[in-house]
Amino acid sequence: MKPKLLITLGDVAGIGPEIVAKAWPKLHDHCVPVVVGDPRFLPAGLPCVNPSAADLSGVKVGEVSAEAGRAAYDWLCFAIDECRAGRADGIVTCPLHKEGLHAAGVSYPGHTEILADRTGAKSHAMLLYDDDLPLAVAHVTLHQSLRNTFDRITTPNVLDKIRLLHGIVPKLTGQPARIGVAALNPHASDGGLFGHEEAEVIAPAVEAAKREGIDATGPIAADAIFLPPGRLRLNGVLCMVHDHGHIAMKLIGGRRAVNVTAGLPIVRTSVAHGTAYDIAGKGVADESSLVMAVKVAARLAAARS
């Protein structure tokens, strides 16, 4: 039996409604899809539930809106609660806008943090996953300024994310995890010339993971870890900061990439792009990331069941 997946519409001022409409005929190959959003932004006939009281009548396409931010938050919370209650098998999220969230008084920086808080996940990680490679990339630090990342890059945090990758990679790829751990500093610090994090923080985490029986190697220079032939031996990469992983994966895989949250008690995937206000309403948005996100969510839901 196909899993029931809830497709949250995200920020309706962006391309969420368009990619849902374009992807809809392909989604039934993988799941029983239900949209959580406002049916007024969708073609007639799509199954849709709207648990939000936000008034979206004044939302303008391509513009930040507090009401759109509030609705996106309400829809996500509803979907989380439905999955936790066992009434749905997973969530696939369309993009929301962080400025819209903040305009609505929602202090979270994005989907991942809302999901972790509402589900009570003590340990979680955001992954970008490319099914064609196949390769999953996780991040030790995520939505924060670079200046503030260094306090979060600790041996326990690096080890925690290695463990999360080790657990989810086999469910994504069907193969045992082979994890490469990226360095933080240029050239993996060149023996300490450019920093101490590699020797004092990252390497001890890799060694601890190995003692637990995890196939992990590193630290490897961040500008080299994604290059063949080394990358071809890996199916998991851990990066220290957001852009080290995101830039590489988006260049390698483009729109194939899928956002996956590891460590949650529920299944959640997402498109690997933003609201794209600049093209919203023009009919040119590409739905392929949403289709892949649904495909991956259905696979993870099947693995859980």
Ordered list of secondary-structure elements with their pairings:
Layout: E1 4-8, H1 16-27, E2 32-36, E3 48-49, H2 66-84, E4 90-93, H3 98-103, H4 111-119, E5 125-130, E6 135-139, H5 146-149, H6 155-173, E7 179-182, H7 197-211, E8 216-220, E9 236-239, H8 242-253, E10 258-262, E11 268-271, H9 288-304
Parallel strand pairs: 1-2, 1-4, 2-3, 4-11, 6-9, 7-8, 7-9
Antiparallel strand pairs: 5-6, 5-10, 10-11
Helix pairs in contact: 1-9, 2-4, 6-7
3D structure, described in words:
The chain is of the alpha/beta class and 305 residues long. The chain folds into two domains: 1-121 and 264-305, Isopropylmalate Dehydrogenase (3-Layer(aba) Sandwich); 124-258, Isopropylmalate Dehydrogenase, CATH 3.40.718.10. The protein has nine helices and eleven strands. The protein has an eleven-stranded mixed β-sheet, with helices on both faces. Helix 7 (197-211) links the parallel strand 7 (179-182) and strand 8 (216-220). Helix 1 (16-27) packs across helix 9 (288-304), helix 2 packs across helix 4 and helix 6 packs across helix 7. The longest helix has 19 residues, at 66-84. The N and C termini lie close together (11 Å).
What's this model, at a glance?
Helices cover 37% and strands 16% of the residues.
Number of helices, where a helix is a run of at least 4 consecutive DSSP H or I residues: 9
Q: Return the average pLDDT rounded to an integer.
A: 95
Strand arrangement across the biggest beta sheet: 3-2-1-4-11-10-5-6-9-7-8
Low-confidence stretches: none
Largest sheet, if any? 11 strands, mixed
What is the CA-based Rg, rounded?
Answer: 19 Å
- CATH topology call of the largest domain: Isopropylmalate Dehydrogenase
CATH class value of the largest domain:
Alpha Beta
CATH superfamily of the largest domain: Isopropylmalate Dehydrogenase
Structural class of the helix and strand makeup?
alpha/beta
